[in-house]
Amino acid sequence: MQVHEVFDAMTHPNAQATAQVNRQAQDAMRSLPALRTQLAALGANPKHTSTWLRAWLHGRLDATLAPHWGAHELPARMRQALPALHAAMAEVARVHSAHASGESAARLLVALSDGQSIEAVLLPKLNLCVSTQLGCAVGCVFCKTGEGGLQRQLSSVEIVAQVALARQRREVRKVVFMGMGEPAHNLHAVLEAVDVLALEGGIGHKNLVISTVGDLRLLDALQTRASQPGAIKPALAVSLHTASDGQRATLLPRAPPVALRTLVERSDAYAVRTGHPVQYQWTLMAGVNDSAQALDDAAVLLQGRFGILNLIAYNTIEGQAFTRPSTEHAAWLVARLAQRGIKASVRDSAAQTVDGGCGQLRARTLASVPVMFRRLPPPSTPTCAS
Ligand code: SF4
After folding, report:
1. 179 lines ligand 1 (CB under 6 A)
2. Which of 234, 238, 277, 300 could cysteine-pair with 385, CB 3.0–4.6 Å?
3. Is 360 exposed, middle or buried (0-12, 13-18, 19+ CB in 10 A)?
4. How far is it, in rounded angstroms, from Cα 177 to Cα 186?
5. 284 with 295: CB under 8 angstroms?
């Protein structure tokens, strides 16, 4: 059955709008190119497709918000199919429950069409953290998501649907790919999502932030984009957590065995090329990576780099051996970094209580004020973000 026949069947009053038909429609929407093909089969030209995608990505396709398009905006056949199309989209991803934390943070439990669920986290400053995989293969020892391994990839539609759902609730200006999963392990879908969010979702390049534990395939893909005029060039976040290669192999056991210095150099090259500082992430765990020496080593590693160091206090997870350092200790580290020419600050995060799978660790990064390091670089070296 062709895509348009599926929707004909769904929209015709006497048709068999069965579960099988629904499933076929959903299957056809499991990637953004397939979704575009489907819209074309309903008579949409590129302008119509853009009109519909923009409405979807801005959260205006739920039952109460759906626009009333006229003949000049969408073809008749597509308008006729909209109720069925939107019903099928609602099955691809829907908010199962929302858990607020303060006024500007909330965790959304998003149910997928196969009965699985993922998390998206609304963060302060109109940020949104999205998941890119169901589970994760990296297995960071401090991460709940990593405990269960990878279950499946998310499609590009499922990734951007998290933005559409979040925007049904509030404005979203920045999307960080830091939730469940390692984005580099689902790179094709993630880059499809980045492109459509930039081109149709109204989100600027630097406000699309892809995180990685250090997969060079992602850095290769981004460097290629950096040299392509007109390509979407997202910002990059790199999970460091330590400046020691040996300790990193312990904390992130299945992360690529890339030397930290190489990782930072490669990341820095992309940052300099694009003008988007790298967001280096460091989850502070008491007695593990929160010593003066650990942060001194980080200062050396990142000296003169074009980036931002986000220090995030570990959020205690039941059953895990790690603990969160005290606020006083974190403040002391910040002062020590400042003494070494690295400007740093710490603040309380409104999203600290938002538990979000691995997002628990990573989503909170964007909820906390970035700790900027502004060590003066050598004269010819690009400086850090100000
Ligand atoms: S912290 Fe991120 S990369 Fe590490 S296991 Fe969790 S989801 Fe995967």
Report:
1. no
2. 277
3. buried
4. 11
5. no
Q: What's the DSSP call for residue 378? A: P
For the entire predicted model, the pTM comes to 0.87
DSSP string for residues in 149-214: -EEEEPPHHHHHHHHHHHHTTS---EEEE-SSS-GGGGHHHHHHHHHHHHHTS---GGGEEEEESS
Q: Tens place of pLDDT for every residue, the chain, 386 residues? A: 455 555 555 555 445 544 554 555 566 667 999 999 999 999 999 999 999 999 999 999 876 667 788 888 999 999 999 988 888 888 899 999 998 877 788 989 999 999 999 999 999 999 999 999 999 999 999 888 888 899 999 999 999 999 999 999 999 999 999 999 999 999 999 999 999 999 999 999 999 999 999 999 999 999 999 999 999 999 999 999 999 999 999 999 999 999 999 999 999 999 999 999 998 888 889 999 999 999 999 999 998 889 888 888 887 777 778 999 998 998 888 788 778 876 666 654 434 444 433 444 334 444 443 434 433 333 232 222 22
Q: Which of 75, 84, 87 is nearest to 42 (CA)?
A: 75
Q: How far is the CA of 138 from the centre of ligand 1 (A)?
A: 6
Mutate to test the pocket of ligand 1, among 129, 178, 182 (most ligand atoms within 8 A of CB): 182
Residue type at 181 in one-letter notation: G
**Taking the mean position of all CA atoms in its chain, how far away is CA 289?**
25
Q: Is the CB of 146 under 6 A from ligand 1?
A: yes
Ligand 1 atom closest to residue 142's alpha carbon, by position in its atom list: 1
235: which strand partners? Answer: 209
Dist. CA 243–CA 261, nearest whole Å? 9
d(CA 234, CA 198): 9
From CA 128, how far away is CA 359, in angstroms rounded?
11
Q: Specify the 3-state DSSP secondary structure of 377.
A: coil
Q: Are 134 and 180 in contact (CB under 8 A)?
A: yes
